[in-house]
Amino acid sequence: MSRLPSSRETLRALERAGFEQVSQKGSHVKLRLLIGQGVRTVIVPHPRRELSAGTFGSILKQAGLSLLEFEDLL
Question: How far apart are CA 61 and CA 64, in angstroms?
């Protein structure tokens, strides 16, 4: 991946992965994915901004996705 994705691109990719938007508070969007009897929750900040490397890595970790899996969703 040559550049980091924007928040909007990240939200779309996570929705393609099955996450659903649950709520939004201020500039943060909360997404959830039901997995068997568990739940994965991911918070994505401010739509339309490019994410920092640390924030993007944290989102991938929370979502349980590898970089390759994420790139396939874009």
Answer: 5
Please name the residue ranges forming H helices in 7-63.
7-16, 53-63
CATH code: domain 7-73 is 3.30.920.30
Predicted TM-score of the model (pTM)? 0.90
The domain ranges of the chain are 7-73
20-72, pLDDT tens digit by residue? 999 999 999 999 999 988 999 999 998 777 899 999 999 999 999 999 999 99
d(CA 19, CA 23): 12
Whole-angstrom distance, CA of residue 21 vs CA of residue 54: 22
Place of tokens 């568990």: 38
